[in-house]
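ok trying this again, last paste got cut off
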Amino acid sequence: MGYRRQIGLLGLLLGMLLSLPAAGDEIRIIPMISIKEEYNDNLYFEKSSGLSDFITTASPGLKLERNTERLKAGMTARLDERIYVDNTDLNATDQDYQGNIGYALSPRFSLGATAGFTRDSSPDREIETTGLVMNALKRDRQKFGGSGRYAISETTLTSFSADYTKDHYENNSPSQSNPYFRDMEAKNANLLFIHDLSAVLPATKGRASLGYANYRYVDSTIDNYTAMVGFGRAFHELWNVIVDAGVRYTPSQYETSQYQFVPPFSFVLVTNTVQTQGWGGVGNAVVSYKDDISSIDFSLNHDIMAASGRTGASERTSVGIRMSRRFAYEFTGLFSSGYFMNKSDTGQYSAQAIDEQTLYITPGIRYNFTTDMSMDVSYTYTRTAYQEGSDSDADRNLVMVRFSMQYPLFE
């Protein structure tokens, strides 16, 4: 039912994309395909020597875009056919469908909407976004949201956003020996105010935001309320900095089961609901640099965040950096790295403890044969430290070669 609902939402976005009247239409239809070959020496991030394999992924897709002075809209559909040389039981067809639409009702007021459906199965599907290691269970993810921007005055802007995410893991039940990989629902809402402070501080904008998140699992529910203040500033037209910091209030409840003695000779399994609450700090920072040949993006974030598949949320601190430099018209050097700390004590934000630290480092190169044809080569080293101790680290080496091509029609 969720799959059909999501496809229906994408169909609605497509209908809106094609039916809205506007002058100066630009409609693009872009078929695309990529072929990726990987060597992975630890498929499941096991602590001792793990399974290794060669993986071929063929990814045909189609992109549809429509842009006007007021309308920005697009849809993308892609299949990922994953083929393992030795571990053929892991072969899978992953899917990704995304749609977005934005419309400016006036120069001061604009609205937007997104919808998406993803079916994925790779154990490393969240390494670069949450730092959490998964297994090869298929996951269906529905996600849709809305947003808006309104200029209150020439110096004050407000924006709002809300989104809903639902994760479902196939063929998974609480009776399995692995306690992780539970279904999840996440709701997020955020209200942001930005005020130009250039009259006092050159090229500086003040920021204030309020946020709410609700994470719902099989046996736990977490609410998270946040309030932050900060600033954004541009330096020399090349550097931009955004810093926000504030507090959070996090009430949660979870269920515990234990055996209770019933006289004279029996025990009964009893389920209790436990409620907790706590305060803490939250914050994020973004530093970016961009010129004609180079770009750098550095990010830092700390908050209570969803832990997909686990039994609750986690307190996550993440640091990331992405860099690129074009050495010639065809040749670009790439580098990305991230470090994640996911922690939650038993009964804090999760029915079971979460304590994982993950580091990944990815240098790579890209060669552009044309504007629509390229090849990427990269190496990724990943280390995950689990809660058992320093001797329980898992290391993975991944070598990747990918050829990508697209062919815009009617151009």
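PB: full thing came through this time. The longest helix spans residues 2-19.
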